[in-house]
Fold each of these.
Amino acid sequence: MRQIALEVNGARVMHTIADNSVTLVNFLREQMGLTGTHVGCDTAQCGACTVLVDGKAIKSCNVLVVQVDGKRVRTIEGVADGETLHPMQQAFSARHALQCGFCTPGMVMRGISMACEGTPPDPERIRSGLCGNLCRCTGYEGIVLAIADGMREMQKQGDVCAGL
Ligand code: FES
Ligand code: FES
């Protein structure tokens, strides 16, 4: 048994962990009900489980929840501003950058993290940054265009990375 305290989408969460081997993605989905973070491969290859931890994109199937004790976690459920979608979500919608949508939460989170890291909205740089995110529907063209648009909009709005 271990007590952990973390911030999830801006809310303080305290939880008793009975099993130290619980992954962050399983904690988010099963304990928090945040099922927008998907499990694809469960072996750190597909990126479907990407979330932000202290603002950095990580594969939450490959991290134990006890490892994020004291940290800030942001999932796809926590990026919109009320009813207003995050600029990266808006760009995915405008570009129709999804097919089945299974990879989309991870792609959006990785897109946001790339923008916050200062990656330029250049297709080659975006493709390189997405090397750990797979789309089984292979809709990469729209995804790259959407991330570039989302990055530009985030730059325009400024200060959208604070607190993520
Ligand atoms: S489910 Fe985590 S990388 Fe595939
Ligand atoms: S849209 Fe289907 S896996 Fe990417």
Amino acid sequence: MTTYIAHARIFDGEKLLDAQSLTLNGEIVTAIGGDTAPAGAEIVDAQGATLMPGFIDSHVHTSVESLREALKFGVTTELEMQGYWTPQQRTEVNNDDTLADVRSALIALMAKGGHPSELMKDLGEHDPAAGESKGWVMPSVSTPDEARAHVNAFVQQGADYIKVMIEEGTVMGRPDLPQMNPQTIRAGVEEAHALGKRVIAHAITLDATRQALEAGVDGLAHLFIDRKADAQIIVALADADVFVTPCLVISSSLMGNAATALADDPRVNSRLPQIWLDTLRGRFNTYPEGNFQHVLDSVAALHSAGVDILAGTDASVPVASHGGVAHGASLHHELQYLVQAGLTPSDALAAATSVPARRFNLIDRGRIAPGLRADLLLIDGDPTTSINDTLDTRAIWRRGTRLAA
Ligand SMILES: [Zn+2]
């Protein structure tokens, strides 16, 4: 089937185009521009709306149901930073156009008894048998050899990239969490690179961030929240070409802020089940002494220094004590925070489209161009000047299939 979208403002993931029409056929965009619809095409009049690539959330922990919620908000791809899917489950998600697509790190490199086992305990998943019943046991590593074996095992099981947990617990309300030693982290990173996989570190403090840099990671799944970025760390991150997914929404939750205004937004609560609205109104509150403005200032400084900023939420499970975030909805909240930090609306949109596509080598998406996957959003208004407009979703296409309203 061919669809011709006319009279749209088109943001291609990097910039506004002069063209105002687009043709998609089957799963891909086939043409940009052209004044007449191809014969037999369904015509969509996009007057007053902006067409842009589907959003990519660069930090989640997800499930089939969460992928469904994400897509309702225009998130067409979720990048999971710890979770588990069998290859068969991955194929089912890939072929289901009612779900966001997913990429996953599968199980992260983590220390025995270290992060995130303390969160799993809260959720009643500390019993190894609970993991077993889901098809896996939460593994941990203590030595370089174990780290290499772990990376090999999960790459074989389909990990798209490798996640490493560097967390001493100070901002998680659990000081003295066990950690892997630097040699073990380094061995895991080197093994992943030898296998052609990127490595993304969980690091929420400046110390942990320095450890991640020393280990040679490619990206950070959080931005440190215990300190404002100083010139030294900014230069170090820029020189190492490390990308940063600040996850401002979860940072705010750690500091005690619930996402009440987001949950109250009719564009959100009309689309979100009650359990997720309750989750948005929850919060972590493990680091109330934190200064959120400092985190926003750090984002601005990193962006100015040329560090790639990616939009991510760290959305996971619908539990209020782990709340403040929800799949899909919170990506819009993150974009609002990125603009509050000082990114232009277009830069914020790029952080959720073309930038993660480039950094995660998702060559078939994240931009609008002929031949690329037709993951598209039609948004009323102009999010390139008013980021608040992103929630005014008029239509969503996932792989060329329009999501039923
Ligand atoms: Zn996470």
